[in-house]
Amino acid sequence: MSLDAERLREDFPILRRTFHGKRFVYLDNAATTQKPSCVIDRLSEFYRLYNSNVHRGAYTLAEEATDLYEKSRANISAFIGGKPEELIFVRGATEAINMVAYSYALARLEKGDTILSTEMEHHSNIVPWQLLQPHGLRLDFVKLSGKGELSLEDFKEKITRRTKLVTFTHASNVLGTINPASEFAKIAHDNGSKVLVDGAQSVPHMPVDVRELGADFYAFSGHKMLGPMGIGGLYAKSDLLEEMAPFQGGGEMIKEVGLDASTWAEPPQKFEAGTPNVAGSVGLSEAVDYLRRLDMSRVREHEKRLSAYALQELESQEGVRVFGPGDPERRGGVISFEVKGVHPHDLATILDREGVAIRSGHHCAQPVADWLGVSATARASFYIYNDHTDIDSLISALGMVRKIFGRRA
Ligand SMILES: Cc1ncc(COP(=O)(O)O)c(C=O)c1O
Fold this sequence. Notes:
This protein is α/β, with parallel strands linked by helices. It has helices at about 5-10, 35-50, 60-80, 95-110, 125-130, 150-160, 180-190, 210-215, 240-245, 280-295, 295-315, 345-355, 365-370, 390-405, and strands at about 20, 20-25, 25, 85-90, 115-120, 140, 145, 150, 165-170, 195-200, 215-220, 230-235, 255, 260-265, 320, 335-340, 355, 360, 375-380. The site of pyridoxal-5'-phosphate (PLP) has 13 residues, from α4.
């Protein structure tokens, strides 16, 4: 049974808005997704009825808040195939990757060891590693090739005995490419390297099982999967969490504190210094329940169908060039494109006047734009509440762009 996007739209109050007198067509889901009423209500309910700090108070309300927080952890971790104690709450994928950089790579690796990333990455999976270079850690990148896939050949060439960590995105936020994560993880593990997968663009859109994938670390953001902003997760295998150093120091991450030295709490608390985003975790857990009810296989099928239709329609437009793999089986619901003679920012501004919200720019992945040989692209990205009529609106708005830019477009 396919998803009924028109019905699902009703769950999202923001989608009832109109812009410039037009039905709102939201196609910037790779940046952030909209929130269903159940998530908004859950956040509000938390603050109305359950607000208390966690892991501190002995009174009933504090116990209830702690219980909600820990149940949310177990629920969200199970959604990606993990155990409760394997999930650290963070602000999002960026913080999760930084946590691996500082608490694992900087703390555990030795001078001269290499981190192997890729040219396909979001800046959040490049810059944290660059920041480690002054500490003697080396950085290398697997090349992009073909229509925007990672070169397996280059990967096998670049992975060496000193490669201690391989890190790559599960799905590209620019090209839409879905990487063969378990195949990459196997090559890395056979080499004795640990594997970090950036799941910011995959957990929201397809079934993910961290054990099947063979990930040692897996990072994701709640706001890209119907949850609140400011909450996300780092999954990490228990033995790695044991050996990792704390990320930040403060309350709640300690066992005992003396003026000269301190000892640490067990994971996951060891990595959650200070007051956590309790409402965020409860809201994300509600989002996970919503997605589970839809069934992630159906979410993936829905986006595959939409992508196939959008690719076909976009490619048939004169002057439009679509980036990334052509086969919807190998890509997610993210489509970057350009219209000849029109800057992507102008394109996005004209589309906005037609009620269509898309993204323009380098999408925080400048090396990908460099590889494509462009400074920016336009990007449409889909989710559960988008349907074929949204793509028709995008195509008809492109007609308006052609009208404004005349023969140039
Ligand atoms: C592939 C990828 N990784 C990481 C991030 C960073 O996510 P956040 O800004 O939620 O930390 C994004 C955000 O767009 C992304 O697309």
